[in-house]
Amino acid sequence: MGSVDNLAAFVAPQIRTHLSGRHVKYQTRQKMKAPRTNWVSINDLGVVSKLAADKRAITKAKELGVTTRELRMFDQVYGHFHNNTTRILVRENALLFVMEGYRLIITNDEVFIPLFGLPAEELSDLIKELEYVLSRRSEIIRKIKRDKERNNLTGGSPARAPGSTESEEDDEEILPFELRVFEVALGRVVGNFKDKIVDLDDACHPALEALTKSVDKMTLDHVRNLKNKQALMLKKVEAVVEELDSLQEELEYALMVLSVAVLMEVMDSQEVYLDRQQVV
After folding, report:
1. What is the DSSP letter of 213?
2. What pTM did the predictor assign?
């Protein structure tokens, strides 16, 4: 896709024409096609592309093992019913992430993001962050593979030691694709929570000070409004914590790793180097 700076124009709703031919008998009407949704997909190389497709077509093509009922969370028609939904579903070949307006279908080598549910600017920031993180991860994996091939041919050792700071940063980047995407999405949700909590805290202190000086209807309504916002924020945070705890209780963290092969190949190259160091 190149740039996502013009994402707002792409997200703009298309002009729909009125249905015609309502006088025609039901038996002679053409079969209505499934509604298409505008998506952004990012693969494991960090390449961003746009597509318009029905969510069922995506799940069928990728063999995700997701039910039609679960896909309703990614339907623009039913999307407003799931604006406050907090769900993390682990399926056979996919992770479904729905939280605070963020909706992601994550596979072992590609992530699909519907272009609705978030403001255009926030959606653009998410795509840019994923593009950067995944492209950097891909570069690190390619570098490790090149070093492994060169060391197998020459019998030499890597240019940097596994215990160095650079190695620790790279180890973080070469998490499985789906966990890296999950980490970015969850990090943005938590970051939004932090910003809202700071704003709420900044608004509470002046309101309480005003209440100590004057107890009138306007001041009480303002404090009551802030209290409702605080209760809503607490409810949202608790929902996220409960969802993460449920994954741990059901032992689904291990099932979240869909791309085991790539991770094992990278770990194998590091183990080979450690064995050589021990021999020396």
Report:
1. H
2. 0.73
> Burial of 153 by CB count in 10 Å (0-12 exposed, 13-18 middle, 19+ buried)?
exposed
Handedness of CA 7, 50, 31, 61 (dihedral sign): negative
Q: Residue 4 is which amino acid?
A: V
The DSSP H or E segment spanning 65 is none
- DSSP annotation of 163 reads T
Q: What are the DSSP E strand ranges found in the chain?
A: 37-43, 48-53, 87-90, 95-99, 102-106, 110-114
What is the C-alpha R_g of the chain? Answer: 24
The Cα–Cα gap between 106 and 124 comes to 18
pLDDT single digits (tens) 164-176: 445 555 555 578 8
Instruction: Calculate the alpha carbon distances from 72 to 76, 191, 241 in Å.
Output: 8, 26, 23
SS3 51: strand
Cβ partners under 8 Å of residue 10, min gap 6: 38, 50, 115
